[in-house]
Amino acid sequence: MAHSCYLGVTLWDLWNPIVGTLWGRTMEPETTKPEVVKPETTMAETAKPETAEPQIVAPQGTGRRMEQGKFAQVSRRELLKVAPVIVLGAFAIPGAQEWMLKKGLGSSDWASALLFRRAHLAPTFADSELTPFEKFPINGYDVDDPGVIFEKWTLTVSGAVQRPGEYTLAQIQALPRTRQNTRHVCVEGWDVIGRFGGARLSDFLNMIGADTSARFITVACADDYYETLDMATALHPQTLLCYEMYDRPLTREHGAPLRLNVPTKVGYKQAKYLTDLKVTNVLDKVGYWEDQGYSSFYGL
Of 112, 204, 139, whose CA–CA distance to 167 is shortest? Predict the structure, then answer.
């Protein structure tokens, strides 16, 4: 309550001079000049012909319109000056701050999604530009190895698909393999260039008979991480169900047996240790980091 009162006083102190200025411009009392008593004139003076100066009479109401126009111009100028202060002040209120952040983030994601094009590829790089495998950062959500038993591993598929069920790594590896040298960008501020291999997610969705008019793909992971991709990103030709790095089987630290590789998105969208995949139009949860306030689209 004390913060709200302090903010209210601060905003009033900033606003008050402007209101006073604008109020003063319109509410000033009219200044009337004292009546001047002319001395009596003689008959001779009265007889002199007077040359009246031409007077320009403004159309009725013109002066008032000009005054109102000037007032409006001043009002807009003064309000523009104080607008940033008002926004910053509102941003300091906890409830308003959260609302403004959500609205701003939602608008940014909406605009980014409109600009996304499946035909627009992320940059690819020569083998000579690759970050050495041993220097590729291991960035985990909870643990570096959740202990997946590879021999028993399957990917559980559900949702708006014609062929739900359990899919083995061998079935995914039977799809055409794509290898690509792309940049991995972390929200923490670092980036590296790696070599990734696997099946296009679009090919897998075709194999399971996914309804590609649905809005989302959701994945769950062995370490309890979870993530979401919009359908346009899932169908992008560079989005992989990745089971290789640097032409070798994916290691446990990097997400074996299966992870996402999405070079059009930031790193936290590229979930590791996949166990479940669902095609859906409704999201109960967006993603681990998104549900804590991060961007749900985050295109690069």
Answer: 204
In angstroms, the CA 290 to CA 271 distance is 13
Instruction: Give the whole-angstrom CA distance, residue 162 versus residue 167.
Output: 14
**Structural contact between residues 193 and 246, judged by C-beta atoms closer than 8 angstroms:** no
- Rounded CA separation 169/165 (Å): 13
Is 0.85 surpassed by the pTM of this model? no
Architecture of domain 122-292: Alpha-Beta Complex (3.90)
Burial letters 196-234, b for 16+ CB under 10 A, else e: bbbbbbbbbbebbebeeebebbbbbbbbebbbbbbbbbb
How is the chain split into domains, by residue range?
Answer: 122-292
Q: Give DSSP secondary structure letters for 57-124.
A: PPPTTHHHHHHHHHHHHHHHHHHHHHHHHHHHHHHTSHHHHHHHHHHHHHHHHHHHHHH--TT-PPPB
* Four-CA torsion 82, 88, 93, 95, nearest 10 degrees: 110
How confident is the prediction along the chain (300 residues), in pLDDT tens digits per residue? 444 433 333 444 444 444 444 444 444 444 444 444 444 444 444 444 455 555 555 555 555 555 555 555 556 566 555 555 555 555 556 665 555 555 555 566 656 566 666 689 999 999 999 999 999 999 877 778 899 999 999 999 999 999 999 999 999 999 999 999 999 999 999 999 999 999 999 999 999 999 999 999 999 999 999 999 999 999 999 999 999 999 999 999 999 999 999 999 999 999 999 999 999 999 999 999 999 999 998 887
